[in-house]
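>> Question from a student workshop board

For tomorrow's exercise we were told to take the sequence and the ligand below, predict the bound structure, and bring the output to class. My setup keeps failing. Could a helper post the expected result so I can at least see what it should look like? The ligand is magnesium ion.
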Amino acid sequence: MNTLLELQGVTKSFRGLKANEDIGFTVGEGEIVGLIGPNGAGKTTLFNMIAGVFPPDRGTIRLSGRDLVGLKPHQTCAAGIGRTFQIVRPFPHLTVAENVLIGALHAEKKMHAARTRAAEVLALVGLDAKAAQKAGTLTLPERKCLEVARALATRPRLLLLDEVMAGLRPNETDQMVAIFRRLNRETGLSILLVEHVMRAVMALSHRVVVINSGRFLCAGLPADVVKDPRVLECYLGGED
Amino acid sequence: MKRTALFVLIGLFLLAPLASGPYLLSLLTTLLTFAYLGQAWNIMMGFAGQLSLGHALYVGLGAYVSAALSLFWGIPPILGVFPAMAAAALVGSAIGFLSFRFAVKGVHFTLLTIAFAEIARLTFQHLSALGGTGGLFLPVEARTGVDLIHLRGDPRMFYYVILAMAAALFLACRALMASPLGYRWQALREDPAAAESLGVNLLRVKLAAIALSAALTAAGGVFTAFFYNALFPDQWFGLGYSIEIILAPIIGGLGTLFGPILGAILLTPLGEAITAVTDGLGWQSAGIKPFCYGVCLLLIVKFLPDGIWPAIRKRLP
Ligand SMILES: Nc1ncnc2c1ncn2[C@@H]1O[C@H](COP(=O)(O)OP(=O)(O)OP(=O)(O)O)[C@@H](O)[C@H]1O
Ligand SMILES: [Mg+2]
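>> Workshop helper replied:
Here is what the output should look like for this input. Compare the format with yours to find the bug.
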């Protein structure tokens, strides 16, 4: 398996607080990697650096060998990164279809083709019935779904999902899991998945990476990781 | 229903000169000028969410550039409009680029737009070659005939020119709203961070909005210059004028296509009525008109924050 995303020594501090310290791991092409860790472990911070919201203080981030550090978010998007926001950011006064259309316009320059793509993605995530509704009227689970649809519409190579299943009912989680599985199988989409819902992490991830207090803790198969005493300790025992 | 209303409106505007005397015609010309300028400003604020409180800058630039070209080099406004638009687009882009480079956003961006308009006002006050505070005047000839190249002629000609400009801008804005650029503007307006994550180049999209809005506003300035024939820096670059430009789209409905037109239809006669009443009563206070506009604005913000047109549209079948 070829390496798609490669992180090395990624470090980021916020006014003395080390949000990420010396983080390194990879995501292979076609792989789904779960990224877990307790609250405040630094998962979202890592996503923001991969997506170009801010650069790391140190370390390298590569996508298929290409250095992403220093690129702006629209450039990482062009490089193949699609991301969702943990705190959802819909375009509230636009319709659901228009929200997705803006993502689709990244993949398709022609208006007509972009509309078609937006409709396809909406159908895929099961939001097509709400297409004409203003995004501001959606429920939280629907907004999470819209985040996914918008990011998918840009046709990413690597999808960064930040807790998109939080707040979903178990059957909704299973539906979402099925969608990602299918996308992964049929289009080879790679996914880096931040998720607290273990049901989803276990079902989706080929591999799991655990970080705690900004540091890499361990990585391995989902079934092994959840039995690792260090992982149990960091979730149960709190910080250090 | 909407369609019928639109055709009635177009019909009324097309036929209005036949039934109106010089006063009404000049009122309608002013009305359409504000509809046009409001529409041009709305591209930046209503579509792309960038609040400019210094749009008089572009009207003034358009006016002075075209007037100077015509006075000193004999270049007619039909050609002068292009350098006028280019100058405004250039200045707008410079403001946009500076604000981007130094991460000036929101209120501070708006302050920057005011600052640039003020700088222009002070500069033109001291440009004696262009009349300075004393003003720049275009020769007024007999107001007859139709000379579109030099923008000289009958008041009805001016009326139809600005009507054509307002209509063309309306259609252009409608097309823009449904274009990829239009959607990117709206994404920028709604949530820049989300837009950026979806591949929208914020700088490019912002500059496009400012440059286009500035250039179109300058074209309105060219028209206005040749309609009024007298340019004074205090008026043409003044903050008061900048505010007057944005009232119609705000009251009519930000980001809507009909908002600027509806706002101008309501406000221009109101402004005239206020002037008539205060003149009739012999009051000298120049503050009454802005005060009444302020009250209108307050009422709209309080009761119809989206503006009048969205409220009407909801009730249309
Ligand atoms: N922009 C910022 N400025 C200052 N501190 C920040 C910023 N972003 C994150 N932090 C801090 O960095 C640490 C890591 O935060 P981060 O959001 O990355 O954690 P997380 O793993 O995503 O947590 P959660 O599971 O709660 O989403 C936290 O202590 C947080 O307060
Ligand atoms: Mg987080």
